[in-house]
Amino acid sequence: MKSGARVLGIAASDADRTSTIAGAVVRIDRVVDGVTLGTISVGGRDATASVQSVIDRADRPDVAAVLIAGIAPAWFNVIDLHALDAPGPVISVSFEASPGLDTAIEREFEGSAREWRLATYRRQPERHAVSVDGETLYVRSVDASPDRARVIVRETTPEGGRPEPLRVARLIARAAAERRRSEDS
């Protein structure tokens, strides 16, 4: 990626009924170039729409890629990566090895809630392991080959095992969620 390239990182915080979602536009040289916030219903079905809202509010046609922390934030509120309209490839990054979410979804949900989650989850691209600085990340991508997604993830991870746009977005989401919790109490 070129030195001035920008990537939109999107991450959510944990909460009771709603989860704060943050989008951080970060240049490849680690300069933060924009922030936007939203919410996701915990255990709901609005994650895809909430992520799309963050992308839209960021309003950055110069973004080279969108990185999303995970595929099912806010207690299995599954994101449909194929449904997102982004200015570049959409790449979901997870940080732990797992056999997948099927068993957990089947255990936690019933009826249409279960079926919707399983159908949405099973439509998503296959995960591929990516080694970065001795860490293994797991990547799904839309509009980027696994090789291209691997390059984007590595180029946005200057140190440690978390791409900088996701690290920044997670910090912002946590701070915003903490502020909301303190205002509610």
Automatic annotation (TrEMBL):
<dbReference type="InterPro" id="IPR002802">
    <property type="entry name" value="Endo_dU"/>
</dbReference>
<comment type="similarity">
    <text>Belongs to the UPF0215 family.</text>
</comment>
<protein>
    <recommendedName>
        <fullName>UPF0215 protein HARCEL1_06070</fullName>
    </recommendedName>
</protein>
<dbReference type="Pfam" id="PF01949">
    <property type="entry name" value="Endo_dU"/>
</dbReference>
